[in-house]
Amino acid sequence: MTQSSSSPASPKWGSLTKFLVALVFVALLGWLLARFQQLIPPLGLAFILAYLLNPIVEWLTTRARLKWGLAVTLVYLVLVLLLVAVLTVAGIAIGQQIKGLYDAVVEILPDLPVRVQNLLSQPVHLGPFTLDFSRPIAIGPFSLDFSTFDLQPLYDQLLSVIQPALQQTGTLVGSLASGTATALGWFLFILIVSYYLLHDLKSLLPSIEQVVPEGYASDVRRLAMELGPIWNAFLRGQVTLALVMGSVVGITMAVLGVRYALVLGLLAGSLEFIPIVGPFIAGTVAVLVALFQPENWMGLSPIYFALLIVGVQILLQQLENNFLVPRIIGGSLNLHPIVILVGAIVGASLAGITGLLLSAPVIASLRLFGGYVYRKMLDRDPWPNPPPSPTSPPKFEWPRWLRAIRPKRRDQRPQPDPSGGLRSVEDRTSEGRFAESEAQSQKPEEQSSSGTG
Prior knowledge:
Blueprint: H1 15-35, H2 40-63, H3 68-108, H4 112-120, E1 124-126, E2 129-131, E3 137-139, E4 142-144, H5 152-178, H6 180-199, H7 204-211, H8 217-256, H9 261-270, H10 277-291, H11 302-328, H12 337-377, H13 400-405, E5 414-416, E6 422-424, H14 425-452
Helix pairs in contact: 2-3, 2-6, 2-12, 3-5, 3-6, 7-8, 8-9, 8-11, 8-12, 9-10, 10-11
């Protein structure tokens, strides 16, 4: 009797063994996350950077016919050169304005009630009307006396909320100069990690499919398809919106003569990720800076200048909500603004600026995974809806009055026709395609006729 040369089959794990191995794995993963918690924000920023640069790399590979690795290297080389140029030109000015704005806020806060009372004691002239808040104002049967208002309790409540943020901001401002080497090291770490993430992006999904159990590869691909619109709808759109609004606010404040306009633009762009509260905080800071600014180039009084900034901030918010948001972000995550607001606060407390940036898409992703697990636990179809169709980002539409005067592209201009008329390139292209389709439809008829003959 010959002995089989094949090795014996490996014994299968029992339910208890699988449970213990999974428990040890979860405990080890939790210990690693707690031990290396400081790596979570840089890794999150590296993921965001790679995700934002992915469309540029795809455009280079499809239009310029570059290989994926070469396109990634070229994009990161240009990014590094741009960052070095921006930091060289504007880095010192940004640092000075940040420190100046922080010093101004710290100087205003201690005697804010006194400053407000002094402003209210001065009469305000609005055309033929004069408002004197130092005297009672009669409104029908009611009378308001602003001089009797005690702003100290409200100020104490406000200061208790702002003080922790000011302390963290002061620590950050103080560490900008002393921690340059550390910040540069983290910056290089983010660039390197995001580079390799983007470089090996094409092999990431197949690698995950090889790890998952047999039969779940289709679920992994479907989850990836569902996650794509979530991150496209918010992250790229919100980053674009933050850049646009930060630039618009900064330029507008600079034109109006508000101090620290550059930092106010950066603040407005950063707070765009917090719905409702973020733009309100950015606008309030701009109004306070204008209110306590010594002078302005228009020669307006502090109250008039602050009212002007209030009107400009309201106008910019209306422009954002009614014009920019539908065209830049397009689709939404179907999350209530309160959910996004609470998630942003929780994310900021857990992971700082990275948690703030990723809070909304992470909540939407957790909702997707939660729905998948819930349906699997109840033996239901995990995908009751058809798969999402690949949609391109919302196309920017020019206003109608600007569309009428905008020059047409070269391929849309009418071309001379030998018959004497004018035809556009699109007309000639459609005619050529029609003729080609007619020729192809006639070939089977000729072949059939020759075969019968």
